[in-house]
Amino acid sequence: MPTDHDALFRHVFAQPEHAASLLRSVLPAAVSAAVDWRSLQLTAGTSVDEGLRDRHADLLFTARLAGAPALLYVLVEHKSADEPLAAFQLLRYVVRAFDRWLAEHPGATGLPPIVPILVHHGPKPWASARSVADLVALAGVPGAAAAALRPLQPDLRFLLDDLAATPEEELAGREASVLHRLSLLLLQFLPTAAPADPEAVVERWRELFQAVWAHPDGRAAIYALFSYLALRLDVEPERFVAAGARIHEGARQVGKSLADRLHEQGFQAGIAQGEARGEARGAARGKADALLTILRARFGEVPAALAVQIRASSPDALDDLLARAATAPTLAAVFA
Fold first, then answer.
1. What is the pLDDT of residues 190-214, one digit of tens each?
2. DSSP three-state, residue 127
3. Distance CA 95, CA 216 (A)
4. Residue 278: its pLDDT value, please?
5. Closest CA to 61 of 106, 4, 126, 112
6. How far apart are the first and last CA of the chain?
7. Considering the chain, what percentage of its residues have pLDDT values greater than 90?
8. Fewer CB atoms < 10 Å away: N or C end of the chain?
9. Strand order of the sheet with strand 114-120?
10. Helix count and strand count (H, E) for the chain
């Protein structure tokens, strides 16, 4: 199931402007200079593996590199740095990206270059293997045999954007689009924000929030960022009105729109919960009526106090009583 991290990352970096900003910040300078950024496109479907969606967000881009096609694959790791097989997982996803490319180019006799990129955020810096070769266990193999085996092993290296190892000031000052910077700051540093309140979060990175608001798509961007905060912070919806006002008077309305949506969601959830409780009560009432009918048919009038007890019983208890009422020799035996 997609996470709130996924929603924020996909909203921001599925847009070519911010995707290019992210890729430029990670790619080697020579590769970045060779990419025709005007040709950058997000592939249809975005994810190369539906199984990723419960733990990661991934985006696959195509671009022209020195006039030829190239693939740029970005995987976001949301969890801890203890992912020992991450390099192998990336290898699998890269193969699937190549499979997709070959399916779309049936006459191809070669493969385009691909750049796998892992963006990691979490409480600790990345500490796992950076290549598939590092995962292959050759330590116990005799030297000559290990030397012969090593070049035969599959390998894949990836570029790592380790947000957990990047100081907040460095990430905030990165040469990148402002929404790119602010989104990554929220992914990495929101868990440590204190107090956990949207107005305090805005104040912490107020200049960046104001710069996002000034962008032509600022209203939609602020709404997306506030929606992410709403999923991560347990606060009253009205707090987003105050947070919006800290950015700009116009952003106050964005906060109000979100607050109204959150109230409506809460109202609908309350209705659903009430309906569920009503259905449960209705089912219990029906079982109680059925039990009383059986008891009266078999044993005569049911004492009033016992009828009250029956109507207060849970659906599971009533199921048990119904089963016993069919065969019990006496009324007392039903409740023994």
1. 877 666 789 999 999 999 999 999 9
2. coil
3. 38
4. 53
5. 112
6. 47
7. 48
8. N
9. 35-42, 56-65, 68-77, 114-120, 159-162
10. 15, 5
